[in-house]
Amino acid sequence: MDEPALTLSALEKQMVFDRDKLQSIIDGFIVAYHHGLTNDDTTMIPSYVSRLPTGAETGTYLSLDLGGTNLRVAAVTLLGDGKADIEQKKYVIPAELKVGHVETLLDWVALGVKELLGCLGIQVEIINEKEMYMGVTFSFPIRQTDINRGLVMKMGKGFEPIGLEGQDIIELLQAAFKRQGIKIHISAIVNDSVGTFVANAYKDQNTIVSVILSTGTNASCICQTSSISKHNFPHDSPEYMIVNTEWGIMGMDFLPRIKYDKILDLQSNKPGFQPFEKMVSGYYLGELVRLAMVDYVKNFGLFDGVLPNGLEKPYNFTTKHMSDIGSDKSSEYNVILKIFTEDYNKSPSLDDRRTIHELVLRFSRRSAQLSAAAIASLIKLQCPDFPAVERDIRVAVDGSLYHRFHEYSSWMNKTFREIQRIKEDKRTKIVPVEDGGCMGAAITAM
User: Fold this and answer.
1) pLDDT over 90, % of the chain
2) CB atoms inside a 10 Å sphere around CB 246
3) What is the mean predicted confidence (pLDDT) over 220-230?
4) What letters, b where the CB count within 10 A reaches 16 and e where it falls short, cover 117-147?
5) Alpha-carbon distance 111 to 398, whole Å?
6) Which of 61, 72, 108, 400 could be stapled to 442 by a disulfide with Cβ–Cβ 3.0 to 4.6 Å?
């Protein structure tokens, strides 16, 4: 890139958004939503989930949540009164499975399901005597054609399994179950944001937006079926439907990208794809800071002008590092000293530690501000009078970035209140959700 290096003060000007800039971002998203509803098949994807739970439902259903980092398989028992019990197993997805053949990946998934059944004391023979129903949460874009049908689109988060793009993920999963001798019927597939929406609606019927802030980011909302004009739905279709926005794909034409965003995008395996996700999500935040540190070594003498061993490797400075640094309240930034001594064989000076701390804060706070603006845009899409809305609204948020990144939720909520121009909101609330993908998929299967 030919752009000059950005000093900390220059970064401050470009990465901290005032109310006018936030409003510009909100307006940009709303234009993108309308484009997706009318012309773009890669965004504003109908989920075919057209009614929400009442909270009174009961029964046990299986679910599977394939995300950017983890696989979760679960048995969800709905207890009524908005309550549920979840028994689940969690597996970290091996890196080699993300780029290997799709059958290898899905056979591994099927084995995880089989292991869960064993832990629950459910024998495969019992499953095969009486077919059980499963809902699947798939955290990647699919072109959905029914509640239990979806063709996989271009994937992100480091996933490029051979033979998956353009295929029906449900057919492939059912084939993997058959190879493992498991007779489970997949009755629904939802995006993780749709699953989170349904999960929170089970306990709060005021839910109108759901958000994932994790390895990747996405959101869902409710739209009138008639507004999804790119599809010719039958006249007797339900009036409303949950829509998977795929907002991570949006923003190339309106987001305030800086030098390091552009470098990351050009060096990624899909340049031009998912600009919002690349500015916000956990998969990319650490890499943005690493790129800035590399630039500061070259142009501002960070680390005495010598890049620490290992920091030249892409994605070798993680968002977990950032969260740990953000939680450090010591005056000498001892966490930074520990990280760089142990992971990069470098003992940075106090000035270097101050610079690293400031870079981490700049990028993490910007992510939180962008997330708040995007949430506000989805509320405004459904409630044009927002922020002066006169009804109760719940925004359900799930994901490790929101739950476990130090201070992230506080920064996001602070920005959201600034957008609403109030000190404390009484009617519109952002609420945390845990295991939304698993629970929502099971409810949808029901």
Assistant:
1) 66
2) 25
3) 95
4) beeeeeeeeebeeeebbbbbbbbbbbebeeb
5) 26
6) 61
